[in-house]
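Materials and Methods. Structural model of ATP synthase subunit a. The 227-residue sequence of ATP synthase subunit a from Brachymystax tsinlingensis was retrieved and submitted for structure prediction as follows.
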Amino acid sequence: MTLSFFDQFMSPTYLGIPLIALALTLPWILFPTPSARWLNNRLITLQGWFINRFTQQLLLPLNLGGHKWAVLLTSLMLFLITLNMLGLLPYTFTPTTQLSLNMGLAIPLWLATVIIGMRNQPTAALGHLLPEGTPVPLIPVLIIIETISLFIRPLALGVRLTANLTAGHLLIQLIATAAFVLLPMMPTVAILTSIVLFLLTLLEIAVAMIQAYVFVLLLSLYLQENV
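The predicted structure was written out as tokens:
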């Protein structure tokens, strides 16, 4: 029973072929495509409004140099939200519970922000490693600490997304199993457990959207330091 709880996080395979590529491709098929009409339907209008509002909010603290990342960050946000939301459906696989995938997204994007900072303003980028007014004896220690904190950033991005989604899926499965087991023995307790499960599912929908937003927001903050 203990091992079966973690089976949902195994990458599905068919005839030895990993299906994670199919799971990553599916969200792009579900997005409605804009039409050439002057007036779109409600779904496309709502999608366009959401994208515009999110892009404005995300790029508000960035200067004009960071606006080049608008398409990338907005696409990543929609992609992560769709993956996280689809993973809440029954009998589905959530690719963002895989640490390897999240690190594969976090490390290149974080590294791109660091490279941009070192290329455009190397003095300011290196100045983040040593706060102004630091006593001389503490300079080597602070440089080491700030360097370690800089390299921990992509790890924190990937682990935060993985841990939150994994914990939520495990909690949902545990409470659902408890409700199913308690139903023949204690129906009242099972009904109360089912209500808790429903509320937890609503919470996980919010977590799925918030974690995707936090992932992209932190990337934009890292970009803000380097442009």
